[in-house]
Amino acid sequence: MAPSLAQLLSLLPPLLLLSPARALTLRSDASSSLPTLKHELRGASACRCFPGDPCWPTPAQWKAFNSTLGGKLIVTVQLLHPKCDALQNIWFNPQTHIDSPSSVMAQYFTNNSCNPFLPDSASLNASSASDYQKTIAFIQQHNIRLVIKNTGHDYNGKSTGAGAVAIWTHNIKLMEAIDYHSSYYTGKVMKMGAGVAVHEAYEFADTKDVLVVGGNCPTVGLVGGYTQGGGHGPLASKFGLGADQVLEWEVVTGTGQLVTATPTQYLDLYWALCGGGGGIYGAVVSLTAKAYPAVAVAAANMTFFNNGSNADQFYDVIATFQESLPAMVDAGVVVIWLLTPTYFALMPATAPGLSKASLDALWKPTIDKLNEHQIQYQYYSQEFPTYLESYKAMNTPWEVSENQVGGRLIPRSLVEKNNTALMSALRNLVDGGTLFSGVAFNVNHSVSSPDAVAANPYWRELIFDAVLGTPYSYTDWNANVQYALEMTNDLLPQLEKLMPNGGAYLNEADFRQPDFQSVFYGSNYGKLNAIKAKYNPEDRFYALTAVGSDRWTQRQDGRLCRT
Ligand SMILES: Cc1cc2nc3c(=O)[nH]c(=O)nc-3n(C[C@H](O)[C@H](O)[C@H](O)COP(=O)(O)OP(=O)(O)OC[C@H]3O[C@@H](n4cnc5c(N)ncnc54)[C@H](O)[C@@H]3O)c2cc1C
Ligand SMILES: *[C@@H]1O[C@H](CO)[C@@H](O)[C@H](O)[C@H]1NC(C)=O
Ligand SMILES: *[C@@H]1O[C@H](CO)[C@@H](O)[C@H](O)[C@H]1NC(C)=O
Ligand SMILES: *[C@@H]1O[C@H](CO)[C@@H](O)[C@H](O)[C@H]1NC(C)=O
Ligand SMILES: *[C@@H]1O[C@H](CO)[C@@H](O)[C@H](O)[C@H]1NC(C)=O
Ligand SMILES: *[C@@H]1O[C@H](CO)[C@@H](O)[C@H](O)[C@H]1NC(C)=O
Ligand SMILES: *[C@@H]1O[C@H](CO)[C@@H](O)[C@H](O)[C@H]1NC(C)=O
Ligand SMILES: *[C@@H]1O[C@H](CO)[C@@H](O)[C@H](O)[C@H]1NC(C)=O
């Protein structure tokens, strides 16, 4: 007979995993032991209750909790696998992580463990607001750490935690197209449950002849970290960020209250959830977002190569391409590209409402430059009757990122006024082996003012979101630690110095980013912190690099304690 949840939990040793805090302390060896010492002196009361502590729920209490939830509690050992090799083969398939209540894609947060799962204590396979409420009551009663996990895409390990009870939202798949009337919006909308993925929303919208704003990546959770963190995607230049689309959030707050936050009620909570970062203002049950009449879509892709001897010409083309971006994004185009030491790949450019001819004309400066330098290229463009067809034909399949990431929001003014300096920094990074990916768009006019939602106001100045990637090794852990340090201390600063007081996308950034409060949240940090405190008086919601996370430190054993 399989052991019960209660038996398993009582047998668990103190859970060991990589603490992001440990990684954080690598930055300064001298001070790394200090925070731990301080907590030891203060005693366990300053910490969340951890497996093995006297305060940890008894087997009977776990059993009772499971039964109030109708048996939906899962011990999170789903990715335990007899052989590491077998697991590594399936690791790169996002579905492995999406189907698991506990596994996350950012392998760095697994402490070089053969079993790439993180030992949450238990996950609730949630299906309703009342499931959320019961879980919040339980973690409050027992002082246990809480985590909200949707797809596990978060690069910063925000959807995992040792000794936590996780609310797993993946199976909440409600989707409805509604004619909506309110004082602030009249028109088509889509209501989506917490577990809806980007591709599911696109497919449903297509059947209703509407467009819904989502990400480039099909498997990202639209209602979770994506919209709550800002959210960019192929329709951003035309309609704005994901966070700009929100009309209503159904959300359970830190006190267990279910509320509907809109521009006219719980405005502060509504505002914070629109781009202020996932996982910390409340547990979202559903999102109601604007939907737009369907239009035809043109899209293009392109590749050309840097073979070493044509490197100067190659980068000259890239410079011309960057200078053409303002015209593209102003025409409603979103451009996604990858730059590696050996090639440039456009993957793709999406132009809702534009003809193929108009899109081709926007690429003319780049193509002329390629011809001038006699660089061979492949360029392909097509007009599609629907967004979904364009998306399916032109998007390259995504795998779990094999890179450690860092990011920077590149302001339009830099490309317009000093593209030379930007190009020289990019070339230096890429020549050094750093992968670079860019997503260009214009969201300057999609909100009445940059303060209308909590998304970093710096988005409104953007020409492109730059994401840097360093290699990730599944066999050499020390190399990963070195690469992570290099990202923080050497690579990102090369971009940062070109745009002092700049920003980064909190969902695609370095988890060790210095001054993350201002870099990720801009001038909104203080206000967001106050809203978090208002709806979470006991500070139950925590995620690394999230608002208020500086009040907590994760110890080496994974235990979460007040800083
Ligand atoms: C391969 C890949 C491609 C990506 N492409 C894009 C892109 O095109 N555009 C873009 O903007 N971003 C993109 N991202 C970044 C993505 O938006 C973030 O990783 C985001 O956090 C994912 O949200 P999730 O809910 O799917 O993931 P999770 O890791 O499950 O959750 C992320 C955060 O949101 C919180 N959260 C999740 N659900 C809820 C809920 N119901 N209530 C409250 N908090 C919740 C979690 O606690 C966590 O803090 C990409 C990431 C990857 C790995
Ligand atoms: C990580 O793994 C090492 C080696 O297996 C182990 O000593 C350590 O306790 C683990 N946990 C953390 C958070 O470092
Ligand atoms: C929770 O209860 C259900 C229904 O009794 C049971 O099937 C399930 O195994 C329990 N969870 C665990 C992990 O014990
Ligand atoms: C979670 O619940 C859904 C129903 O909401 C069910 O289909 C699914 O099998 C459950 N998953 C696990 C891992 O228990
Ligand atoms: C590199 O590419 C250029 C054109 O882009 C070509 O003229 C040159 O012959 C190539 N060199 C090598 C070594 O392949
Ligand atoms: C461009 O897209 C077309 C249509 O999907 C595809 O056949 C082709 O391989 C792609 N080309 C490049 C260079 O990505
Ligand atoms: C461009 O940036 C470089 C590096 O920051 C700086 O030295 C140079 O003065 C700038 N040029 C202009 C025209 O702003
Ligand atoms: C954004 O719009 C404002 C007001 O129209 C304008 O002043 C500003 O230059 C624009 N910024 C960008 C980056 O387009």
Structure description:
It is built from 18 helices and 20 strands. The protein has three domains: 5-171, no CATH class; 175-294, Uridine Diphospho-n-acetylenolpyruvylglucosamine Reductase, domain 3; 297-514, Vanillyl-alcohol Oxidase, Chain A, domain 3 (3-Layer(aba) Sandwich). 34% of the residues lie in helices and 21% in strands. The longest helix has 20 residues, at 311-330. It has a seven-stranded antiparallel sheet with strand order 15-12-14-13-17-18-16. Strands 5-6-10-8-9 form a five-stranded antiparallel sheet. Strands 1-2-4-3 form a four-stranded mixed sheet, covered by helices on one side. It is an alpha+beta fold and 563 residues long. Helix 1 (5-11) runs antiparallel to helix 4 (59-68) and helix 12 (311-330) runs antiparallel to helix 13. It binds flavin-adenine dinucleotide and 2-acetamido-2-deoxy-beta-D-glucopyranose (NAG) (7 copies). One of its GO terms (molecular function) is oxidoreductase activity.
Pairing-aware structural class of the strands and helices?
alpha+beta
Number of helices: 18
Largest sheet: 7 strands, antiparallel
CATH topology of the largest domain: Vanillyl-alcohol Oxidase, Chain A, domain 3
Radius of gyration: 23 Å
In which order are the strands of the major sheet placed?
A: 15-12-14-13-17-18-16
Instruction: Show unreliable segments.
Output: 1-44, 77-92, 111-120
Report the count of strand segments: 20
Shape: globular
Helix content: 25-40%
Report the CATH C-level class of the largest domain. Alpha Beta
Spatial gap, N to C terminus: 43 Å
